[in-house]
Amino acid sequence: MLEVTNIRNGAILNHARGTETDDYLEIKVEGIADPQAIVKVNGADVERADRFFSAPVRLTQKINEIVVSADSSFGEQQLRLTVLWDKKSFKRYNYYIDDCSFFYTDIAKQRPKSLFDHFFLKRLKEIHDRYGTKITLNSFYRNDHFPFELKDFPDVYKQEWIANSDWLRLSFHAYSEFPDRPYQRTAPEKLAEDFDLLKREIIRFAGEETFIAPVVIHWAMANPEVFALLKQRGMNMINGSFIGSKTYVGEMDHAVRVCDIGYFYEKDVALYIEKYKNYYDKFTGMILNTGAGATANLYPVEVLTQKIMAAANSPYYNETIGMATHEQYSFEYYFNYIPDHLDRIEACCRLVSELGYKPVFFAEGLLGNKAWENK
Known about the structure:
The protein is of the alpha/beta class. The chain folds into 2 domains: about 1-85, Sandwich (Immunoglobulin-like); about 90-360, Alpha-Beta Barrel (TIM Barrel), CATH 3.20.20. About 25% of the residues lie in helices and about 25% in strands. The protein has 8 helices and 21 strands. It has helices spanning about 100-110, 120-130, 160-165, 190-205, 225-230, 265-275, 300-310, 340-355; strands at about 1-5, 10-15, 20, 25-35, 40, 45, 45-50, 50-60, 65-70, 75-85, 90-100, 135-140, 140-145, 150, 170-175, 235-240, 280, 285-290, 295, 320-325, 360. The two termini are about 40 Å apart. The model has no long low-confidence stretch (mean pLDDT about 100).
């Protein structure tokens, strides 16, 4: 019998879980083992009380290994836990908008003087100007509703994209909106091909400064075997909902919560992420992340507020808040148009700002925290 009870393999830990200095995060490792076993943590003796044991451990690297052993007359058991230190962590939020193709189509057709003459980008800039919000627009190469492909977007706004790239980034989402779940069963090479195609076009018309690695792919469903090629393309974390997912506007809660929209991860991981929001998969090297559930096209402001407040007041973890929505609900010509959709986005950004969360891009550093890069 050997179990660590307060830390899970794959945990991402910060100052809230121990004592932090510039050089280390000291945490306590707790667990249970046979009372007669000799227990050690990273080779050091532990404090015992019947079956229970505890020991201090100092994390000094971004990725750390904790080795717990219990030796008895029946043999030795050993657990190896891999955990991350989120060094100098701070309260921060990320906002992305999926399924972007309509505003590209409009601008290519209308050719306004400025990008921000278009109502959608204009409102996003107003939100940024008020709250400092950083926004990623996850994009389709092809618009499946109107005849348009990104190759037809003009490059005359390139300098304007670059000038606003400190807060507004463009990223890959999928080749197009349909079919649903486009990468759930396709070959990894197809995902790589679509990614590279879209990235080339964004760089052509918006500059390298404007492209950012995605933190989610369309429908958040793909075999984790694709993570290697995504990491080669700059991704170090990936977002999903993992369990109890809502897949359309108006979907009700289900009596049985199943795993979906989460890259085929099973319930043990999904339930952990639901509470602790982030998890490091040592087998793929990818950080898995879920947001606050504050998806603006699914809920009115009152419900979005409840979800954000629940995330901010979570007794398990409240350092990162991810929020999202989908572009098309902002457009009057979309069949499912939501008149107050942009107001919902602003309400979310205003609330997290008032709660003291700082805007970041989760794609940069460790969930937007660049402490390890800046050391």
